Amino acid sequence: MRRFFHTELLDTDADEGVHAERWLLSYADFITLLFALFVVMYSVSSLNDGKFRVLSAALVEVFADPDVVERLERAPRKPAAPPATPAVLGGAEEWAELPFEVSARELAEVLRALLARREEAVGVAVRESTDWTELELPAAFAFDGDGQRLADAAGPLLDDVAALARAAGVPVRVEAYTDDVPVTPAQPSAWERTAAQAGAVAARLVAAGVDADQVSATGLGDRHPLASNASAAGRAANRRVVVAVARHGQVPSVAASLAAAAAREALPPNTYSRVTELPGPEGITL
After folding, report:
1. What is the mean predicted confidence (pLDDT) over 204-232?
2. Which of 2, 33, 74, 83 is in the most buried spot, having the most CB atoms within 10 Å?
3. Looking at the chain, which runs of residues are DSSP E strands?
4. Using CA atoms in the order 106, 112, 113, 118, what is the torsion angle rounded to 10 degrees?
5. Is pLDDT of 212 > 80?
6. CA distance 262 to 259
7. How far apart are CA 111 and CA 99, in angstroms?
8. pTM of the shown model
9. CB of 139 closer than 8 Å to CB of 241
10. Which of 204, 212, 203, 192 is nearest to 147 (CA)?
């Protein structure tokens, strides 16, 4: 009886030695599934927001209008045009023929490249903001001695900017500033002087081919000085003109904003409306 019990214990130990590492199979399966889960979670968190928005908008448009698919199938396909980059720079006439597809970061580089070709543009600076790229021209460069007419040196540079804005189809904003010193009896206030200066620059841009609906001109007088008017250097810094080119076509133009306001005012009383301004060179109001 004692001998049989000893044999049974030996058999049990042998079975445990054979199956002692079976738990590794389940553990390996668990680790594999956990790794796959983390891979899926990482891929979902790394979505391209831009492509996702484009896809979402396209799906909404298709499901809202089933005829869109048929129209897309019938539309002729056009070859993709190469984007215009700062490396492709010529005269104003060449810009008028180039397809404009410059990113927000490249627009400032384009303006700096245009500025580098004009050695006479002394003191002209390029600045960037959220929606605009600004070209700041000192009044001493932009206007002649009396500060009322455009100088000959400023004309070619403004023509280059006009060709760029015309090719892009984006709005252009002109703002004129001055110091607090009265000018002439014909223009006794800073408001009148800056309004005339901004109008002269805007007229040159329109004459160079920019759509008049895409241009706005504002004279801001001496309200926004860059330096103190107590010194001659400070007054010279405050006398300036800023030509701002929109970085993209989503900035509503002045004409589109006025048209939307007129549409709201033309509605009869007690009427609920929803006005949507879509981006584009001409501006679309729904």
Report:
1. 86
2. 83
3. 125-128, 132-138, 172-177, 215-219, 240-246, 277-278, 284-285
4. 160
5. yes
6. 5
7. 16
8. 0.52
9. yes
10. 192
Residues 6+ apart with CB under 8 A from 214: 165, 169, 170, 171, 172, 253, 255, 281
Enumerate the domain spans of the chain: 2-45, 92-246, 254-285
pLDDT at 149 over 60: yes
SS (H, E, C) 9-38: HHHHHHHHHHCCCCHHHHHHHHHHHHHHHH
Amino acid at 8: E
Higher per-residue confidence, 185 vs 269:
185
What gap in Å lies between CA 280 and CA 259, rounded to an integer? Answer: 14
CB 204 within 8 A of CB 158: yes
Cα of first residue to Cα of last residue in the chain, in angstroms, is 100
Report the distance separating Cα 246 and Cα 237, nearest Å: 24
The superfamily CATH assigns to domain 92-246 is OmpA-like domain (3.30.1330.60)
Separation of alpha carbons 218 and 244, rounded Å: 12
For the record, the structure tokens of 238 come out as 């405050």
CA angle, residues 265, 271, 274, in degrees to nearest 5: 75
Q: Which residues contact 34 (CB under 8 A, 6 or more apart)?
A: none
